[in-house]
Each structure stands twice: as C-alpha cells, then as structure tokens.
Write a structure and sequence with these properties.
Blueprint (H helix, E strand, L loop, with lengths): L1 E2 L6 H14 L4 E5 L14 H12 L5 E3 L2 H4 L6 H11 L6 E5 H4 L8 H7 L1 E6 L15 E5 L7 H9 L10 H10 L35
Parallel strand pairs: 1-2, 2-3, 4-5, 5-6
Helix pairs in contact: 2-8, 4-6
C-alpha cells in the first residue's frame, strides 16, 4: 500500500484490512513515499516521521508490515520504482498495489505507466457514494473498492491539528501521541499546534458528528 501517510489514519488501515480480506493477501506492506513528486509544491513532513507514524499505526496487526524502500531511495518517489524494488525483494509473490481511486484515475500520467500493470494488480479504494471509474485502464489488472472509513483524509487531519482541533479516533492513539510529542503540522503562520490531551474515559460525550471529504493517501 503506497501513500504519503502524512499522517496515517484509520481510513488507510481499514482500506488495507478490507483489501487483504477480499483478496486473501498474506501480507500488506505499507510503503511511505520518500519524496512524492506529485506534492513537490507543498510541505510534506519528514520521511522518517511519516515512516515512524506508519510503524506505530500498523504494529498491532501481524499481517501489516512497513517498508523503507521509497524512503531509502534517493530522489523523487515514483510507483514504478517502488514496484520494481518490492518485486526484486519478493520475486515469487503476486503483487497488489493499493491506492486511492482518485490517484488511480491519474495513473496513465505516471512515470512508465505502460509497465505498471505488468508488475502489479491495482486496487483503487474510495468512500461509498463516490463515483468510481476505471475508464481506459486494463480491466483484468484493476479493481475498485468502496471503503467506508475513506471519508477520513490526511489533509483534514493536518488541518484539524493546525487549527487546534483534536484528531483522536481519526488516527491511531499512538500516532496522535507522536504528533503531539514532535508538534507536527504547524499552521500557515508557522505557529506550533497545541497539544491535545487524551479524552478522559469518564468525560460525557456532548455531541456526535462526521465529515466526508475525499480520503487522500
């Protein structure tokens, strides 16, 4: 599963679990990008921070592992290089590449796009109700799957932290603690985000709510 994971959230974890179950995968390897070429125009948290948050988030699931192949490779991260490196490590394995359906819609513009489908079966995940399309993509090498938790997005999580709002229960507890410890996601003025204490178990819940932006990876 490739992504920036800035930060990793429950949508990523649920998507990985759903795809693992559907295809009976032996393992889901999370691959944080090193230098995402699509996001060169905005700030991205240091690769080591994103890697450590991914390790923390996936530690409790024995089918989840985290790879450093994109972080340790110098230069911009391209999916073709990711797949080639993973294939070299696991030459006998059938590979499935899990990504957001919105990203999958742009796949034909990716580097060496014509070779990607030779290396892996692509699974595009999205929130329910979002219009899915695999037009122009090889039918036998692409699967689209709705995942309820993809209503959560990393973009919204970053904005909430920068704006002083909590992200408890949107991202794993250990990731919230990591964000708090290292004061990630300063607001546009460069001010550090506030530290949010964990809600006390005895505190009453005053209201419930939900938001549904397109989940990004």
């Amino acid at each position: 599963m490739g992504g920036t994971f800035d930060p990793i959230h429950h949508g990523h974890l649920v998507a990985a679990s759903e795809v693992q179950s559907r295809f009976d995968l032996d393992e889901v390897v999370f691959v944080p990008t090193g230098e995402p070429w699509q996001k060169a125009d905005r700030h991205v948290s240091p690769a080591e921070d994103r890697y450590l948050m991914t390790v923390i988030a996936t530690a409790s699931n024995p089918r989840f592992t985290v790879s450093r192949v994109d972080i340790d490779r110098p230069g911009p991260t391209y999916t073709i290089d990711t797949l080639r490196d993973i294939h070299a490590e696991r030459p006998d394995d059938e590979l499935f590449f899990i990504t957001g359906a919105d990203a999958l819609a742009e796949i034909l513009s990716w580097k060496d796009a014509e070779l990607l489908f030779e290396l892996a079966h692509f699974v595009g995940v999205t929130r329910p109700g979002h219009e899915l399309s695999d037009k122009g993509l090889p039918e036998h090498r692409v699967t689209l799957q709705e995942v309820p938790a993809m209503a959560i997005s990393s973009t919204d999580c970053r904005a909430r932290v920068g704006g002083g709002q909590p992200v408890w229960y949107l991202v794993p507890d250990g990731v919230v603690q990591f964000i708090n410890k290292y004061r990630l996601y300063a607001d546009p003025r460069g001010e550090l985000p506030p530290v949010h204490p964990r809600p006390h178990a005895a505190e009453p819940v005053g209201a419930t709510g939900a938001f549904a932006p397109q989940g990004d990876l």
